[in-house]
Amino acid sequence: MATEVAQILLPVPNSGIVQMPDRRLPGIVIQGDSLSQLFDDLVCGLRQAKQHRDEEAYYSLLMCAQRMQDLLTAYEEALKRSGLDLPYMVSIKTRLVADDFAA
């Protein structure tokens, strides 16, 4: 586990603006349960884009969902290593997205 300290520039509900060591620009920290809900919202948008045969929207949403999926996978691994429980009910491992626009 890293021992570096990030500076909190602005606390925001369920998130915060932080300055990571050795980074020029600050980043945004999002609580894991909030990220999980955003992922589920994107998946809902994916379904709607597929239903409406909106290929451009579908692939834009898919790209975002896959990135969030990667972040949630890393988040869950970090929790596991730390002996912490998930703050949401269903692991990302059972909610994976894949390109099924043509299906």
Report on this structure.
Helices cover 47% and strands 15% of the residues. The chain is built from two helices and three strands, in the order βββαα. It has helices at residues 32-51, 55-82; strands at residues 7-12, 15-19, 27-30. α1 (32-51) runs antiparallel to α2.
- Which strand-content bin applies to the residues? 5-15%
Distance from first to last alpha carbon: 43 Å
As laid out across the biggest beta sheet, the strand order is 1-2-3
Structural class: alpha+beta
Q: List unreliable stretches of 5+ residues.
A: none
The domain count comes to 2
CA-based shape = globular
Q: In sequence order, what are the helices and strands, one letter per element?
A: EEEHH
Q: How large is the radius of gyration?
A: 16 Å
What's the total helix number?
Answer: 2
Number of strands: 3
User: pLDDT average, as an integer?
Assistant: 95
Share of residues in helices: 40-55%
Largest sheet: 3 strands, antiparallel
Defining key terms:
single chain, alpha+beta, 2 domains, 3-stranded antiparallel beta sheet, 2 helices, globular
